[in-house]
Specification:
This protein is α+β, with helices and mostly antiparallel strands. It is built from four helices and eleven strands; from the N terminus they run E-E-E-E-H-E-E-H-H-E-E-E-E-E-H. A hairpin with a 5-residue loop joins strand 1 and strand 2.
């Protein structure tokens, strides 16, 4: 018997969280002292982030649409302070949290071609972005170092306003789809629109999904 937190996606249903860590977000989330609860992932609950059974009413499907996934990783290499730095990006894992643009816009600029140019920035800023990326869509290798996500031992589930669940160091009872996916930090769909369920693929952003939707 273990008290370690664990998330289990139920078929066509919510995310069951056992021994849950605190839920954080833009607004405080009261969860009480429950040792298990269900988090909505269909996007229709009137009690977000918690499940209220709406998935059954709307006929929610938890099946991913693998035919439409952009799962091929993209590598961007440049010289930074005389060292080869490669940033690897897996589009299907990107949640559009935009930490990269907020922290190092000269390197991560969607209006440029290519959109990631390591040579335009400082190594410390690039590493800061990789550490801040909540979904594991970005990895970095410096010189001969193997690409990694730069994770910490922090345990938690953050509820992004009008966005996904950002999870750190909580076991997930599901296959990890997405090349280079991290098992220690990942983002789970909350709007019900992702083609890569249970993971977020940024569909909430494209659809302008809101917590007020029900």
């Amino acid at each position: 018997m273990t008290d370690a937190p664990k998330i289990t996606p139920l078929e066509n249903g919510p995310l069951m969280v056992e021994n849950p860590p605190d839920l954080t977000g833009a607004t405080p989330v009261e969860r009480g002292e429950a040792k298990k609860f269900a988090l909505c992932r269909c996007g229709a609950s009137a009690k977000k982030p918690f499940c209220d059974g709406s998935h059954a009413k709307i006929g929610f499907s938890s099946m991913p649409d693998s035919a439409k996934l952009r799962n091929k990783p993209l590598d961007y290499t440049g010289a930074v302070d005389g060292i080869a730095v490669t940033v690897s990006y897996t589009p299907v894992l990107c949640t559009h949290a935009a930490e990269c643009q907020a922290r190092a816009k000269a390197v991560f600029n969607p209006k440029a071609t290519p959109w990631i140019q390591p040579s335009n920035g400082k190594l410390e800023d690039i590493l800061d972005v990789i550490a801040a990326c909540p979904s594991g869509a970005l990895r970095v290798s410096v010189g001969p170092m193997t690409a990694h996500h730069m994770t910490t031992g922090e345990i938690g589930i953050a509820v992004e306003q009008n966005g996904p669940y950002h999870v750190k160091n909580v076991a997930l009872d599901a296959a990890f789809n997405g090349v280079g996916a991290s098992r220690t930090k990942y983002s789970l769909c909350r709007c019900g629109l992702s083609k890569n369920k249970p993971f977020c693929d940024g569909s909430h952003y494209d659809a302008n999904w809101s917590d007020q939707d029900a």
